[in-house]
Design brief:
Length: about 250
């Protein structure tokens, strides 16, 4: 694994990052660096943008609500990650915040809210989801920020699905069978993982999913897990058997 400085603080920036790049911080950035972190001119921090790797940057021209960051050197190259699209029925806010952060830590490339029959939330705050993904990336040193996509109904998701991408369907009604054995039969490559809502999938949805050639139903054991727990369990299994937790 690339050298990772656990102690250092990391901050997400949207700007392009290259040697010598100078970024004049916006008010909220300056307020955080200067007044919250109390950094001074000459202090250095780690920054990333999800595209150009991780950079050590130096603060300069520090005033009350103003500072400039200069990119000194790239300390970690841009990392990729497993080609996993995580599809999920949106949950109520706190649980959704948690699930987005955990899926980001699990290295997913895409976060895709899917509206199912029993989804019981009105609308999804995509900016909040993106903020949670960035916060998880800052805390865990993850360099690839997952794409956050617009919510889509389950039917159209399946109609437009690329059959070359296996869709691992966490099926709470699945007969008990080792998910490790099931996943071991899946070719590694582009994948989707689907977790349902608090009320589970409807029977018509279960039938629709099981009819698809690209869908791989898996059981997550004999107990029904909360949806946010299922997210972590499923993504851990998929990463361990098919993703980037396998030894190279
Ligand atoms: N009522 C609980 C559990 C709902 S089940 C809650 O409030 O979250 C939510 C989703 O998690 C299911 O649709 C399924 O995708 C997944 N899941 C939970 N337990 C599972 C199991 N034992 N096997 C497979 N998937 C499971």
């Amino acid at each position: 694994m690339a050298p990772y400085d656990f102690a250092a603080r990391r901050h997400y920036l949207s700007d392009d990052l290259a040697e010598g790049t100078e970024i004049v911080c916006n008010t909220s950035q300056a307020d955080y660096f200067v007044n919250v972190l109390r950094l001074k001119s000459g202090s250095t921090i780690l920054v990333f943008n999800g595209r150009d790797g991780e950079w050590r940057a130096e603060l300069s021209q520090v005033k009350r609500n103003d500072c400039t960051l200069t990119m000194l050197q790239q300390v970690r190259p841009q990392a990729s990650g497993p080609d996993i699209h995580y599809l999920f029925a949106p949950l109520k806010q706190a649980r959704l915040d948690y699930m987005v952060q955990k899926a980001t830590e699990m290295g997913v490339a895409v976060l895709r809210p899917v509206i199912t029959q029993r989804t019981n939330v009105d609308g999804v705050n995509l900016e909040r989801m993106r903020g949670n993904a960035i916060e998880a990336a800052e805390q865990c040193g993850i360099l690839r920020i997952p794409m956050v996509e617009e919510p889509v109904k389950l039917g159209p998701v399946l109609d437009e699905w690329d059959p070359a991408r296996a869709l691992i369907y966490c099926d709470e009604a699945a007969s008990e069978h080792s998910p490790v054995e099931t996943l071991a039969g899946v070719a590694s490559g582009p994948m989707g993982v689907l977790v349902g809502p608090e009320g589970g999938f409807g029977t018509e949805e279960q039938d629709m999913l099981r009819r698809q050639s690209f869908v791989v139903p898996i059981s997550l054991g004999p107990r029904v897990l909360r949806a946010d727990t299922a997210a972590v369990a499923a993504l851990a299994l998929v990463n361990a058997v098919l993703g980037d937790w396998r030894s190279n």
